[in-house]
Amino acid sequence: MMPDLNTPIVVMLRDNDIAHRILPHQRAATTILDAADQRGVDPRQLVKSMLLRDMGGQYALACFPGTASVDPKKVRALLGCRRMTCVDSTHVQSITGYSPGMITPIAVLGAMPIFFDPSLSEFEHVNISSGSPLAGIELAYQDLIALCQPVVADICREGTPSS
């Protein structure tokens, strides 16, 4: 077990008295499916967070089930901006402070709009990154919603498996 995991994400959950469970990995997870397998959870319970940017430099974080993919056009329509693209993985860390695969909505709170696809609510508990490649965090979906106050809207590509 990892009793001393004190990433900013874990600290924020603790400071806000949000019940959570650390799910340690045997080794650094390299993909969503690998992380789900190591945590012993359904990959759809993993909250995948994708950093998007419009032409004017507006960022947004799109969160959706681990088995789905985001449709940047849907996020763009919600924000009313012209063109929205996924931020190149080489720039993600300088913008969020986290490497790709370790971003959570908690990590960008207050810095940009956060969008949750409604299909995340299919499970009572969801998994987010702990900020370390060696563990994930399980918490109640409703607690994550209450903390992050995202816009809940359909942002997934059609035809991606959501169930």
UniProtKB/TrEMBL annotation:
It holds the Pfam family tRNA_edit. It comes from Enterovibrio norvegicus FF-454. Residues 28-146 form the YbaK/aminoacyl-tRNA synthetase-associated domain. SUPFAM superfamilies: YbaK/ProRS associated domain. CDD domains: YbaK_like. It comes from the Bacteria. This is YbaK/aminoacyl-tRNA synthetase-associated domain-containing protein. InterPro entries: YbaK/aa-tRNA-synt-asso_dom_sf (IPR036754), YbaK/aa-tRNA-synth-assoc-dom (IPR007214). One of its GO terms (molecular function) is aminoacyl-tRNA deacylase activity.
